[in-house]
Specification:
Helix content: 40-55%
CATH class of the largest domain: Alpha Beta
Strand order of the largest sheet: 2-1-3-4-5
Number of helices: 12
Radius of gyration: 25 Å
Number of strands: 13
Shape: elongated
Largest sheet: 5 strands, parallel
CATH superfamily of the largest domain: L-fucose Isomerase, Chain A, domain 2
Distance between the termini: 31 Å
Structural class: alpha/beta
Number of domains: 2
Order of helices and strands: EHEHEHEHEHEHEHHHEHHEEEHEE
Length: about 350
């Protein structure tokens, strides 16, 4: 994730000249520490902010480079209105960070800026400490990950196949609320599209996938009724066509109702959902596409947030039971268990 860094100084020219080297030193510490994590691409402002003009210019500069989050860095006293001006254009959310440097009132500068941002209603986080301390760095990274995740949701599209499943109020959300709160659009797609397109899936890929599964999994529990080789092939077809529809419609994540229509009269979507969520399929590595079973919209949104936070596949499951004697949770659900997690079993 690309993170902007603006370091603030004193607005009095003579004082700024005296503390400039201190400010630059602590900005370098922050930049180097973040780069060493391997998670962050730090982008520092072109100059230490010491005036209204530079606050405006440097915040616009970071925005122009596509930074996802901004750190306001304080090593000395700075005029609070510099942070207020920068907050108008700096990529949000904003984290205020104060270095440990008792020789100068950096903490005072951070808290004065924080109070000003509170007064004008700008959300921000606050961390103080030594950036080289793992615990301090952990707090900073937690904020940065969350901020980047929130921003990555904006402009995404959720594909809703079907509608409310089996009367579940908790599985549906208002379209306007998602756009207002998260910036996510919702594309409604009829489940018939899966049924219609499944026979059109490339048969060479279907057969390749069938052989790949037959060789890779420990056992396929055919029972001659609910699961047969033909039904497994149809489930593979369903995965392929949903995967392709996600590309065609630019869906970032999705949910499939399935129950009861598809499960009763077609096939379940479990295989499709599992491999959509996986970081691979029979064609090799790929990016996971969050797919929630039973078109659970809030479940899908939670999964998408967790994917952005962790960069890993996400599991959707119901807590069916907790076994106190053996100390484990029984997590069962109709799909959305990526095969990726079998590697941990």
């Amino acid at each position: 994730m690309k993170v902007g860094i603006i370091t603030f100084s004193d607005g009095r020219p003579s004082v700024h000249a005296y503390v400039h080297e201190v400010c630059q030193h602590f900005q370098n510490l922050v930049e180097d520490a973040l780069r060493e994590t391997g998670e962050v691409v730090p982008v520092s402002a072109q100059e230490i902010v010491c005036s209204s003009e530079s606050a405006l210019a440097q915040s616009k500069y970071l925005a122009s480079l596509g930074c996802e989050v901004t750190i306001f860095n304080f090593a000395v006293w700075s005029f609070p209105h510099f942070a207020v001006i920068a907050a108008q254009f700096a990529p949000k959310p904003i984290l205020l960070f104060s270095n440990i440097n008792p020789q100068y009132p950096g903490m005072v500068g951070m808290l004065a800026a924080a109070g000003a941002l509170d007064q004008i209603g700008v959300f921000h986080g606050r961390v103080s400490g030594d950036i080289r301390d793992p615990q301090v760095r952990r707090k900073i990274l937690a904020f940065l990950r969350a901020g980047a995740a929130v921003n990555r949701l904006k402009g995404e599209t959720f594909g809703l196949f079907g509608g409310r499943p089996m009367g579940m109020y908790t599985a549906v959300a208002n379209q306007d609320q998602w756009m207002r709160q998260f910036g996510i659009d919702i594309e409604h797609i009829d489940q018939w599209e899966i049924v219609r397109r499944a026979p059109l899936a490339p048969q060479d890929e279907v057969e390749h996938a069938f052989q790949w599964l037959s060789q890779k999994v420990r056992r396929i529990h055919y029972d001659g009724q609910q699961l047969t080789p033909e039904k497994l092939r149809l489930q593979i077809c369903s995965y392929i066509v949903v995967r392709e529809m996600a590309k065609e419609l630019n869906l970032d994540f999705l949910g499939i109702k399935a129950q009861p229509e598809l499960t009763d009269h077609f096939v379940t979507m479990d295989v499709a959902e599992a491999f959509l969520n996986d970081p691979y399929d029979w064609n090799g590595p790929k990016d996971p596409i969050v797919a929630a079973t039973e078109a659970d919209m809030d479940g899908a949104l939670t999964m998408e947030i967790l994917k952005h936070l962790s960069g890993q596949p996400v599991l959707f499951a119901d807590v069916r039971h907790y076994d106190r004697d053996h100390g484990f949770f029984d997590l069962c659900n109709s799909g959305t268990h990526p095969t990726y997690f079998a590697g941990y079993s």
